[in-house]
Amino acid sequence: MEIFFLTGIAGNLSFLAAYALVGPDAGVFGVGASGAVYGILGAAAGLRIAIILILVAGLDIFAGGGLFAHIGGMITGIIIRRLWITGAEEKISLE
User: Fold this and answer.
1) Is 59 exposed, middle or buried (0-12, 13-18, 19+ CB in 10 A)?
2) Do residues 40 and 77 lie in contact, with contact meaning Cβ atoms separated by under 8 Å?
3) What gap in Å lies between CA 18 and CA 34, rounded to an integer?
4) How far apart are CA 36 and CA 7, in angstroms?
5) I need a labelling partner for 77 at 20 to 30 A (CA). Which of 1, 46, 87, 94 fits?
6) Segments in the chain below pLDDT 50
7) Backbone dihedral region of 23: left (phi > 0), alpha (psi from -120 to 50 degrees) or beta?
8) Half-sphere exposure of 64 (CA within 13 A, CB side)
């Protein structure tokens, strides 16, 4: 639940930042949960598998202008995954 919430917020903030920097060329202005879905994908699968899934399966074809939200959510999910892996390794080394 926390991953969905954090990556959703990060995805929407990255879309708002892109919209502020690029303007209407960034896509249709909106807020949604697809950034969070991509964030869960990034947290669960990691960078390589997430990129392969996007490129091979074409998951962004029907994005409706949410590319920046998807990228922001996925990057946040990948960062969360890295933090978990690092935290688990530290916990194992302490034991």
Assistant:
1) middle
2) yes
3) 16
4) 5
5) 94
6) none
7) left
8) 7
